[in-house]
Amino acid sequence: MKLAIKLFILFGLVSTGAIADEISDLKSLGSNRALIKRAQKLDPKNRYRIVQKRLVDRNLRFEFSAGTNIVAGGDAYFDTINAGGQIDFHINPKWSVGVRYYKSNNTLTQEGERVHLQAEEAFNRGETGSFPDVDPPESSILGTINFYPVYGKLNFFNLKTIQFDVYTVLGAGTINLLQSGRSFTYTAGLGTGIWFTNRITTRFEIRYQGYQDTLNDPQNDPRQMNIVNAGVSIGFLL
């Protein structure tokens, strides 16, 4: 009987000490901020939104860039590659306005070379031959406005965290054609701007562009030309 009473008292003392330890841990819970944050993450009723600060400041800054783009669509008898430069003024991270100039380099497509060769062979035989009229672009200048609704950050090969923006572009201007001369042109597209540092930038862009040519013949009705420009540029922020 005495042994049982001693065991009971010993068990009570141990239990009291364990409870005291638990109470002490609970009292210190409020001072452990890391533990509180972990507990909050387990609460399904609370939602947390993390907004990342932009790495590159684009308030009232100029961006100068140069690049090239490949043209798809349009006339089936020649291919066009444009090279040029652009200046953008960033009003804020959401909006920018700019101007672009492109110089065009044109080469005959396989179909164009085939038709041209047939016409030359006909002339050499003393026969009547003809080559379809073409009116390739020589240069163009556009005024643009860009809107940047989406931005984020990328892990660049575990070397650096870089910022990117997905943007829309709208523009209008003039295009200088070989035969028709100057014609009104307009464009719209999507792009991604990548800001490697506070100075170095690059852009990837795809744009629709439309214009009309007349092939320098008053009897011809204006012909609608629809092309797609896909290009890349590298720039510098001031």
Describe the protein in words.
With 238 residues, this protein is an alpha+beta fold. It folds into 2 domains: 2-41; 61-237, Porin (Beta Barrel). It has 3 helices and 8 strands; from the N terminus they run H-H-E-E-E-H-E-E-E-E-E. It has an 8-stranded antiparallel beta barrel. A hairpin with a 4-residue loop joins strand 1 and strand 2. The chain is elongated. The relative contact order is 0.15.
Coarse morphology = elongated
Percentage of residues assigned to helices: 10-25%
Strands, total number: 8
How widely separated are the two ends? 92 Å
Class from secondary-structure proportions = alpha+beta
Q: Overall mean pLDDT score?
A: 82
Helix and strand succession? HHEEEHEEEEE
Q: Can you tell me the CATH architecture of the largest domain?
A: Beta Barrel
> Within the largest sheet, what's the order of strands?
1-2-3-4-5-6-7-8
- How would you sum up the major sheet? 8 strands, antiparallel, barrel
Percent of sequence in beta strands: over 45%
CATH domain topology of the largest domain: Porin
The gyration radius over C-alpha positions equals: 34 Å
Low-confidence blocks of residues: 1-20, 25-31
Number of helical stretches of at least 4 residues = 3
The level 1 CATH classification of the largest domain is Mainly Beta
How many domains, in number, for the residues?
2
Keywords:
single chain; 238 residues; alpha+beta; Porin; 2 domains; elongated; disordered N terminus
What does this entry show, briefly?
The protein has 238 residues and is of the alpha+beta class. It is built from three helices and eight strands. The longest helix has 26 residues, at 2-27.
